[in-house]
Write a structure and sequence with these properties.
The protein has about 130 residues and is of the alpha+beta class. The protein is built from 4 helices and 5 strands; from the N terminus they run H-H-E-E-E-H-E-E-H. The chain is globular.
Length: about 130
């Protein structure tokens, strides 16, 4: 699904002063800094070359790994390992905090699978809970 029309409407409302769309969450800005892929097009708001894309994955079959940011290479591999999951592409400007959902699509091989067994992570350790 392409969200270009929604983006255009949001930008129109922003430039007319009806909404404040430059309100990226600090964690989204950090994700863009460390995991984002810089794109060639400028930010539609501030027109600086600080626009990054993030690809988030969500799905029941991903289990505890749902909601993670993935690269194109990782998505290609995941498409062979999971039956169905959704990818959301979000653009973020690190200069003016513009953020918008650009597109979403389904990937997977169509086979229904159980989510992977839960693995122990750093968040599960006692020292993190203190």
């Amino acid at each position: 699904m392409d969200y270009t029309l929604d983006k255009r409407a949001t930008l129109t409302a922003l430039f007319r002063g009806k909404v404040d769309a430059c309100d990226a969450d600090p964690y989204l800005l950090l994700a863009a800094k460390f995991h984002g892929v810089k794109v060639a097009r400028p930010c539609p708001v501030c027109e600086k070359n600080a626009l990054y894309e993030l690809k988030y994955t969500f799905g029941d079959q991903l289990g505890q790994f749902s909601g993670r940011i993935k690269s194109i290479e990782e998505l290609a591999q995941m498409e062979k390992e999971f039956g169905e999951f959704r990818v959301y592409i979000v653009e973020v400007c690190r200069e003016c905090s513009w953020n918008h959902l650009c597109a979403s699509f389904l990937l997977g091989d169509g086979e229904v699978r159980k989510p992977p067994r839960r693995q122990r992570t750093l968040e599960d350790e006692d020292w993190v809970k203190r």
